[in-house]
Design brief:
The protein has 947 residues and is of the alpha+beta class. The protein contains 29 helices and 31 strands. The strands form nine sheets. Strands 1, 22, 23, 24, 25 and 26 form a six-stranded mixed β-sheet that branches. It is globular.
C-alpha cells in the first residue's frame, strides 16, 4: 500500500499541468468569445449614437445584480454560518446522532469550500434573477404622475403602474430569501444536533430556537406586508365580469386582506416572543389562526357574500364597479374621445346617388397591397437577386400637387436568388438593395397591371430625386463589409446597367453607417462573433472598411429602445430625398387600475398577421394601457435611428425619458415631409377595435346585459384554416358630415354572436394634424339589416352572372384572387367594393392582374371590368361618378391623357411580347399578345375620343 503512493504522486506531478493548461485555455476562449460579443455590441451602439442607452441598461443590470446577489448570498450564507457557529458542543449519543456524525465527518474537511461555493452560487442566481427586473427598477426610480386618481384608494395611477410592482418584487424576494435561509439554517442545526426531533424534550437548542424564530417571524411579518399590498393589487385583478374591484372585493375581500395583515403582524410578534419563551406552542397557534383566518375571512366569507348578496341582484350591486371599469378602460386604451354617430344607412340605390361623394369614390383603392407582391416582383424585381416583401404597404404621395393613395415597397436584396453564392459575394459584393417602388392605388393599365409612379432601375423620378440604396431593410444579409478596397475600384454591386462594359454599376459605400472593421483587433472581434476566419484574412478588407450588422429596422429600434413595444409592420417612405423606414412605438403597462387586460397577441391577430410573413406578430404580453407615444425612423442608407416623441402627455413615456434622457427627440424636430407620411398604426387600431367591440357601451346596465357587443367579422377574402378577422384597411375617404377627405384606417363591426349583418363602421383619422387619431364610429340602427362583409361576399358568389364569370375565370389554367373587401359610407348607405384578380396557375412566373370589380350597395350588385361600370350597374345606369370610374376630386383620374398613356404603354408591351413569342416559335403566347394588342388599341382610341 505504501509502495503505491510514490507512483501516484509521480503520476500527479506528470499530469498536473496539462489539465490546468486546458482549463485555462477553455476559460480564456469562452471569455474571449463573450467579450468579443460584448465589445461588438458597444461598437454597434456607438455607431448609432445610443451609447447612453447601452451604458444605462448595463449599469442598472449590474447594480441590481450585485446588490441583490450580495444581499441574497449574505443573508442565507450568514444564517448558515451562524447556525454552524452556534452548534452544540455536546450531542447526546443516539442511533440517529451516530448516523449524522458520519455526514459531519465527510463535510468537515471541505466545510469552508462548501460555504464559499454556496455563497458564490447564491450570489450568481440571486443576482441573475433580480437583474431581469432592471426595467421595473427604472420605472420605480423615475416614476411620473398620471394626474389621475384611483377612485377606491385615492392614489395616483403611477402608484399602481410604477411603484406597486417594485414593492411586490421586493417583498417576494425577501420572503424567498428568508425561506431559503430558514431551510439552510434548519439543515445545519439538524446536522450538528441543534434540532433533535428524536428526543422527548428540548428538541431544539436555544440558539436554533432563537435563530429560526427570528427568521420565521420576519417571513410572517413580510407576509403581513404582502397582504397589505394585495389590497391594492385587487384593483388590477381579472374577474369573470370586469377587471378591478367588484362589490365582493370592496365589501369582503378588501377588509379581509387588512385583517389578515393585522393577524400576520401579531403572529410575527409571537415568533419574536419565542426568543424568550421556550415553547413553540404560541407561534404554532398563531400560524394556525392565520391559516384558518385566511380560509374563512379571505375564502369562505367573500364566497358567501358573492352567493347570497351579489348574485340575486348582480346588475345593481356591480353597476358602480362596472362603470369604473368602463371609464378606466376607455381612458387607458385612448378611447375616451371616440365619437359615436347614429347612421341611418339607406338600402335603396338610385341614379346619381354618389355625385356628392367624389372625394371618396375617386380614391377607392383597387390595388390590394396584400395581393400585389407577386405582381411587383414580376414587373419591378428586374433581377433574381432582388425581392419585395410578401405584404406591401399603403401610403400617400403628391404628384403635381395632388395627393394619391399609393402602394409602396423597396427593392431589397435577395441573396438566395444570386446564382453565384460564395462568402465574398454574399458579404462584400452583394451588400444592398436598390430602389423605391410606388404604384397608384386606384389605377391600372389595360392589362390589369398597376400604374407605377416610381420604378425601374435606375429609378424613375416621379417623386423627385432620392438616395435609392437600401443597406438597412427587412431582407438583408446578417452582415456586410463595405467601404474599403485594395485597388481603388468599387467592389460592391450597385445595380444592373446595360450601358456599362460588364453590364453592371459598382459602388463604394460612403455613408456614415456601420462599425469600423479595418483594425486587426476589430477584425478579430468580428471573426470571433461570426466564426469566420476570412474576415481576418481577406485582402478586400482594409483600414476604411466598415461592417454593417443588425440591419433590420424593427430590430434596430428595439435595441435602442427596449422599453418600447413596436408595431409589427414597418413601412418605407421617401422623406427629404431619403428612404426612411417608419416604425410606430407603443408604451404599455399592465398597471392601470380597473382597466380591462388584454394580450397583444390575441388582440392583434387577424387574417393578415396570420398569413403574411412580412408582418411581425405581437407577443403574449398582457397590457391594460397603451399609447402610440413614439414615431421611430431608420434611414435605409446609413441606418440612422431617430426616436420622436409623438404623444407629449403620456406619463409612461415621460418616465422612460427620465431614465434615458437624451434618446428621444421632440416632436417639433420632425420634418414636414416626414409628417406627410405619418399614419395611424395598424396594431394600435387592432387593439383599440378589440376593446371598442365591448367598450363602446358607456352605461353599466347595457354593459352587464351585453346585447350590444360587437365583433370584427371574418375576412371574406381568406378561407379555410387560415381565415381570421378582417384586417383594418387604409384609404382616403370623406366621412358623412365631414368637410374634407382624410387618409384613414377603417374597420367594420358585426353583432357578437351568430349574426353577420353590419352593426357599425369605425374610422380613425391617420393624417398628421389636429384630428389625427380621432376615432369616429358610425352605428347602424338595430332595426336596419345592412349586409356585413361575409354576407356581401356570399351574395357576390350567389349572383348567377358573377358566379358564372368567376367560374370561367377559374378555368383554363387560371385562378381567381379576391382582393380586399372595402367598406365605404357613401350615398347615404354602405358601399362595398372588391377587386378581382386573375392569375395563371400553369406558369410559375405568373402574377395577379386586376380584371374585374365587384360592387354592392343595399341589395344591388355590380360586376364589371371597371369600377365605373360596376357602380353604374348598381345605381340605375348612372352612379354620378365620372366616365372613368374616378370622380373628379383628389383621386387620380384615369381618363384623357393618363388613359391614353396607359393604353399606349400596354400596346407597346403587347407588341414587344408578341415579337418575342414569335421569335421563340410560341404561337400560343403570340396569339394572346395579339389579343392584348387589340384591346390596348381599342382603349387608346376610346381615351383619345374623350380628350
Amino acid at each position: 500500500m505504501t509502495s503505491s503512493f510514490p507512483n501516484l504522486n509521480f503520476n500527479r506531478r506528470r499530469r498536473g499541468p496539462l489539465p490546468i493548461v486546458i482549463a485555462i485555455l477553455v476559460v480564456a476562449s469562452v471569455a474571449l468569445v463573450s467579450l468579443s460579443g460584448f465589445y461588438a455590441d458597444w461598437l454597434w451602439f456607438r455607431s448609432v449614437d445610443f451609447t447612453e442607452v447601452w451604458s444605462t441598461i448595463l449599469l442598472t443590470k449590474a447594480t441590481v445584480f450585485v446588490v441583490a446577489g450580495f444581499a441574497t448570498s449574505l443573508i442565507i450564507t450568514l444564517n448558515v454560518y451562524l447556525a454552524f457557529r452556534k452548534r452544540p458542543l455536546y450531542v447526546p449519543l443516539t442511533v440517529e446522532a451516530d448516523n449524522l456524525e458520519r455526514y459531519r465527518s465527510q463535510i468537515e474537511p471541505i466545510r469552508r469550500l462548501v460555504l464559499v461555493g454556496l455563497s458564490l452560487v447564491l450570489f450568481y442566481f440571486g443576482g441573475s434573477s433580480a437583474s431581469q427586473l432592471w426595467d421595473t427598477w427604472l420605472l420605480f426610480k423615475n416614476s411620473t404622475s398620471f394626474g389621475v386618481v384611483d377612485p377606491q384608494f385615492g392614489l395616483d395611477i403611477s402608484f399602481f403602474a410604477f411603484k406597486l410592482p417594485m414593492y411586490q418584487a421586493l417583498v417576494a424576494w425577501a420572503i424567498s430569501t428568508l425561506v431559503f435561509a430558514i431551510i439552510g439554517s434548519a439543515v445545519v442545526h439538524y446536522l450538528y444536533g441543534g434540532i433533535r426531533p428524536q428526543v422527548a424534550q428540548e428538541r431544539t437548542t436555544v440558539a436554533a430556537r432563537v435563530q429560526l424564530s427570528v427568521l420565521i417571524g420576519l417571513v410572517v411579518l413580510l407576509k403581513a406586508g404582502a397582504y397589505w399590498l394585495d389590497r391594492y393589487a385587487l384593483a388590477l385583478k381579472d374577474n369573470k365580469l370586469i377587471t378591478g374591484l367588484t362589490y365582493t372585493d370592496v365589501n369582503a375581500l378588501l377588509p379581509a386582506k387588512a385583517i389578515l395583515a393585522g393577524i400576520a403582524a401579531i403572529c410575527s410578534l409571537l415568533f419574536f416572543a419565542n426568543i424568550i419563551r421556550r415553547s413553540w406552542l404560541l407561534p404554532a397557534a398563531g400560524t394556525a389562526l392565520l391559516v384558518i383566518s385566511s380560509v374563512l375571512i379571505a375564502g369562505i366569507y367573500p364566497a358567501a357574500i358573492q352567493q347570497f348578496q351579489v348574485k340575486p341582484s348582480e346588475s345593481s350591486k356591480e353597476a358602480p364597479f362596472i362603470q369604473r371599469n368602463i371609464d378606466a378602460t376607455r381612458d387607458a386604451f385612448g378611447l375616451s374621445a371616440v365619437e359615436v354617430k347614429d347612421f341611418q344607412a339607406t338600402l335603396n340605390a338610385s341614379a346619381g346617388q354618389l355625385s356628392k361623394d367624389s372625394a371618396t369614390i375617386s380614391n377607392i383603392r383597387l390595388m390590394d397591397p396584400n395581393v400585389l407582391s407577386a405582381t411587383f416582383r414580376q414587373l419591378q424585381q428586374i433581377k433574381p437577386y432582388y425581392t419585395f416583401g410578401a405584404t406591401l404597404d399603403v401610403d400617400r404621395y403628391k404628384v403635381d400637387g395632388v395627393s394619391y393613395d399609393t402602394i409602396v415597397a423597396v427593392r431589397e436584396l435577395n441573396i438566395d436568388g444570386n446564382p453565384s453564392r460564395n462568402w465574398i459575394n454574399d458579404h462584400l459584393v452583394y451588400t444592398h438593395g436598390f430602389g423605391f417602388v410606388a404604384a397608384y392605388g386606384n389605377v391600372r393599365d389595360a392589362d390589369g397591371k398597376p400604374s407605377f409612379v416610381v420604378g425601374d432601375l435606375p429609378p424613375t423620378k416621379g417623386l423627385g430625386e432620392f438616395e435609392p440604396r437600401i443597406y438597412f431593410g427587412e431582407n438583408v444579409p446578417d452582415y456586410s463589409i463595405i467601404g474599403g478596397t485594395t485597388t481603388g475600384e468599387p467592389v460592391e454591386f450597385d445595380y444592373p446597367d446595360d450601358a456599362s462594359a460588364n453590364g453592371q454599376k459598382n459602388v463604394t459605400y460612403s455613408g456614415k453607417g456601420g462599425v469600423p472593421v479595418g483594425s486587426l483587433f476589430n477584425k478579430l472581434v468580428f471573426a470571433l462573433k461570426y466564426q469566420e476566419q476570412r474576415i481576418l484574412l481577406s485582402n478586400l478588407i482594409n483600414k476604411d472598411s466598415k461592417i454593417l450588422f443588425e440591419r433590420n429596422p424593427r430590430e434596430r429600434v428595439a435595441k435602442v429602445a427596449p422599453w418600447l413595444t413596436l408595431d409589427g409592420d414597418p413601412y418605407p417612405a421617401l422623406v427629404d430625398g431619403r428612404v426612411l423606414w417608419i416604425i410606430d412605438g407603443y408604451t404599455t403597462s399592465a398597471g392601470y387600475p380597473y382597466s380591462r387586460k388584454t394580450t397583444l397577441s390575441g388582440a392583434t391577430t387577424d387574417a393578415l398577421t396570420v398569413n403574411s410573413t412580412s408582418i411581425t406578430a405581437q407577443g403574449d404580453q398582457t397590457v391594460n394601457y397603451i399609447r402610440n407615444s413614439v414615431k421611430a425612423t431608420v434611414d435605409a442608407y446609413d441606418g440612422t435611428v431617430s426616436l420622436y416623441q409623438w404623444d407629449e402627455n403620456d406619463p409612461v413615456l415621460k418616465t422612460w425619458s427620465k431614465a434615458f434622457p437624451n434618446s428621444i427627440k421632440s416632436k417639433s424636430e420632425m420634418s414636414d415631409q416626414l409628417m406627410e407620411h405619418i399614419r395611424y398604426p395598424e396594431d394600435m387600431f387592432r387593439i383599440q377595435r378589440d376593446i371598442l367591440s365591448a367598450y363602446h357601451v358607456k352605461s353599466a346596465a347595457a354593459f352587464y346585459g351585453g346585447q350590444d357587443f360587437w365583433r370584427v367579422p371574418r375576412d371574406p377574402s381568406t378561407f379555410g384554416a387560415n381565415a381570421g378577422n378582417q384586417p383594418p384597411y387604409y384609404m382616403t375617404m370623406q366621412l358623412p358630415g365631414s368637410d374634407k377627405a382624410a387618409f384613414s384606417l377603417t374597420t367594420p363591426f358585426v353583432p357578437r354572436g351568430g349574426r353577420e349583418n353590419l352593426a357599425a363602421f369605425a374610422v380613425v383619422n391617420s393624417q398628421a394634424g389636429p384630428d389625427y387619431g380621432k376615432i369616429t364610429v358610425l352605428q347602424l340602427p338595430r332595426s336596419t339589416n345592412v349586409a356585413g362583409p361575409s354576407q356581401v361576399a356570399s351574395n357576390f358568389e350567389a349572383k348567377p352572372e358573377v358566379a358564372n364569370s368567376l367560374s370561367l375565370l377559374r378555368q383554363g389554367g387560371s385562378d381567381v384572387v379576391l382582393g380586399n373587401l372595402l367598406t365605404l359610407p357613401v350615398g347615404g348607405g354602405l358601399l362595398y367594393v372588391q377587386p378581382v384578380y386573375v392569375r395563371a396557375t400553369a406558369n410559375a412566373a405568373a402574377y395577379p392582374l386586376l380584371q374585374k370589380v365587384l360592387v354592392s350597395f343595399g341589395d344591388q350588385i355590380g360586376y364589371s371590368d371597371t369600377l365605373k361600370g360596376a357602380l353604374d350597374q348598381v345605381f340605375a345606369g348612372n352612379s354620378g361618378t365620372s366616365e372613368s370610374g374616378a370622380s373628379t376630386g383628389s383621386g387620380k383620374p384615369t381618363t384623357g391623357t393618363n388613359d391614353l398613356a396607359n393604353a399606349l404603354a400596354s400596346a407597346k408591351q403587347a407588341l414587344a411580347d408578341g415579337q418575342a413569342a414569335l421569335a421563340k416559335g410560341d404561337f400560343t403566347a403570340y396569339g394572346k399578345a395579339q389579343d392584348r394588342l387589340k384591346s390596348a388599341i381599342a382603349a387608346a382610341i376610346s381615351a383619345q375620343s374623350k380628350k
